[in-house]
Amino acid sequence: MEATLFDIEEQIGAFIMAADDDETDEAARAERDAFIMEQLEELANAEADKVDAYGFTMKKIEAEVQFLKDEEARVASRRKRAEGQIDRIKERIRFIMEEHTIKKLSGKVHSISLRASSSVVVECEADALPELFRRHIPEKYEPDKKALKNYLDGGNEIPGVRLETRNSVQFR
C-alpha cells in the first residue's frame, strides 16, 4: 500500500529526530547519516509526488465545479426561455380568445378556457396606504466581517467577536 502524505511527513520527522541522536562511533554515525540522507531523499521524492497528485486532483475537481456552474447557468437560461415561451403562448391565446369573445376552446385531448381572476395593482408608495394595509418586511442583519476585522486589527475588542488565525490550503 502506498504511503499517505501524513505517513510520509511522519517518516521524515522520525528520520530527522534519528539524525539528532548522538552516536559516539564516528564510522557508525557516518553510516547512519548516509542511510538517513538516502531515506530522506526517497521520502522527499514521494512527498513531491503526493503534492503533485493533490494538485492535479484539485485542478480536476475545480474544473468540474466550474463546468457544473456553467452548466447550471446554461440550464437556467434554457429554463427561462421555455418559461418565456409558455408566457408568450398563453398571452397570444388570451388575446385571440378575448378579441373573438371566446370563453372556451376544445381539442381532441386538451381544452383551453378563459377564467376571470382579480389581482391588486398598487400604484402608490406603501407609505401612502393606511397601516392596516401595509406589512413590515424586516431587514436582515449580518456581521460585516471586513469592518470587524479592521476594528479588531486596530487592537480593539468587541464582546462575542474574536480574530482567529487559520491556515488555508492553496494550490498553484
Tell me what you see in this structure.
Strands 1-2 form a two-stranded antiparallel sheet. The protein has three helices and two strands. The chain has 172 residues and is mainly alpha-helical. It has one domain (5-133). Helix 1 packs antiparallel against helix 2 (26-99). The longest helix has 74 residues, at 26-99. The model has no long low-confidence stretch (mean pLDDT 89).
Q: What number is the mean pLDDT?
A: 89
**Number of domains as seen in the coordinates:** 1
SSE-based structural type:
mainly alpha
- Spans with pLDDT under 50 lasting ≥5 residues? none
Q: Report how far the terminal alpha carbons are from each other.
A: 28 Å
Helix share bin: 55-70%
Largest sheet: 2 strands, antiparallel
- What order do the SSEs take from the amino end to the carboxyl end, as H and E? HHEEH
